[in-house]
Amino acid sequence: MVDTSRGEAPAPPAEESRGCLFALSQPPLMIFLTVIGGLLLMAALHDLFLL
Questions:
Q1: What percent of the chain stands above pLDDT 70?
Q2: 24 with 30: CB under 8 angstroms?
Q3: Do residues 23 and 17 make contact, with C-beta atoms less than 8 angstroms apart?
């Protein structure tokens, strides 16, 4: 009979991959997105009311 056991226990998986929600929870990214969103909002309001 063939011995299929391994000498060492299998290593635990590496750090679990993190998804989009983890990225959005980072403060620098949220500040950046808020600034960009504010600029887009100001440009849209300018186009609507002043042009």
A1: 71
A2: yes
A3: no
